Amino acid sequence: MKKITKTLAAVLACAGMASCAEHSMEIVLTNTLDFDRNGEMVEIVPDFAAANYYVLNSEGVEVPSQFTHDSLLIFRADVAANSKAVYKVFASDTAHVYPQIACGRIYPERADDVAWENELIGFRVYGPATQAKGERAFGYDVFLKHTSDEPMLEKLYKVECDPVTWQKADSLRKIDNNLAEEFIKTFSYHIDHGLGMDCYAVGPTLGAGAPGVLSADTIDYSWCYETAEVLDNGPLRFTVRLTFPKREIAGNEDVVETRLISLDAGSYLNKSQVSYSAPDAGLNTVVGFPLRDSSATYAENGVVAYADPTQGPDNGKALLGIVAADGAFAEYRNIDNHILGISSSESQAPFAYRWGCAWDREQIKNLNDWTAHLNRVRLTDANPLTSK
């Protein structure tokens, strides 16, 4: 059996090679926690090579799966509290097609945005064209979404980036600015037309959980990415690798920052790994959010959370959250009007964490429920589904 990476959410189980068909394998998942784990993403390395794979649950029903860029077979599993569940993987000569839940792309027509989504939430990061304009947009942006398996970003960007529509708006503006503004409201993705909306402000901040470096008690911000490579594009996982221009950070010259970001179906949170090519020393990574008002924040046990009021009179709140991959931060501080979790060491190893958002107009209604969800994520990360 091939070696499984440290981040796997499941360990393969088989009663013996003789009991496993040549082109199939059995996976026994054990939930050691006292609550049900429904729709949790499982990652395995198949112990046989095949052109394609498919997965059946214990009732023999096929569940959507995906083979990722890093040779993992992923699928969503249901395992009851303190119980086990059996799944089976089979070889297939044909690719099985499933609904596209987690997906995204680079949008050169919108200043090189990289934007992605799943059924719960959407995100974007700004690109070279934004930086070339001098627009100081450092952090991650959020597209709040009404829960739906139907992707929305293509629809939102199509209208927002339509030059004909904007030409009409410009023509109306020459007649009456108010008429133009009312027309823009009929299509702008800053207004909820039933799919979702962009009403979160980023600007020169970490936005919805981007990383920075702590330098002399100030945040050293990255600007926009330089190159982007989409590695996975659904149906269950979107992954992008971003590299940032060389810059001086904390006395280290020509440092290149690299981020690997993945969003899975069923998750409010992205997984991120951040690394810096600092030749002489590691860097203290910080992650967090700008504070827009005096609302309460949550920062303990490796979790940081805040309910951002968003822009507009009645757009609801963006429930922002971070979960440290190692279970804790060294400390939590308010710096530069941000609530921050600070990494526990200056190691050159990649800094890993989860970051994301929920909309209080959907399933999770307030900061208390959101922090409970984040702490459950922290608990499941620390107690992965395993085979025993």
Radius of gyration: 22 Å
Within the largest sheet, what's the order of strands? 15-16-19-20-27-24-23-22
The dominant shape is globular
Helix content: 10-25%
Largest sheet: 8 strands, antiparallel
Query: What's the total count of β strands?
Result: 27
Please state the average pLDDT score.
91
Low-confidence stretches: 1-21
Content of β-strand: 35-45%
Straight-line N-to-C gap:
16 Å
Helix/strand-derived class? mainly beta
The number of helical segments is 5
Provide a concise account of the structure shown.
By secondary structure, the chain is mostly beta strands. It has five helices and 27 strands.
Description:
The chain has 388 residues and is mostly beta strands. The protein has five helices and 27 strands. The chain has helices at 128-132, 153-160, 163-175, 177-185, 367-382, and strands at residues 24-30, 37-44, 52-56, 62-63, 65-67, 73-79, 84-92, 103-107, 113-117, 121-125, 141-145, 196-197, 211-215, 218-221, 227-233, 237-243, 247-249, 252-255, 257-264, 269-276, 285-290, 297-300, 303-308, 318-324, 331-335, 338-342, 351-359. An eight-stranded antiparallel beta sheet has the order 15-16-19-20-27-24-23-22, with helices on one face. Strands 8-9-10-11-12 form a five-stranded antiparallel beta sheet, with helices on one face. A five-stranded antiparallel beta sheet has the order 14-13-21-26-25, with no helix packed on it. Helix 3 (163-175) packs antiparallel against helix 4 (177-185). The chain is globular and about 70 Å long. 39% of the residues are buried.
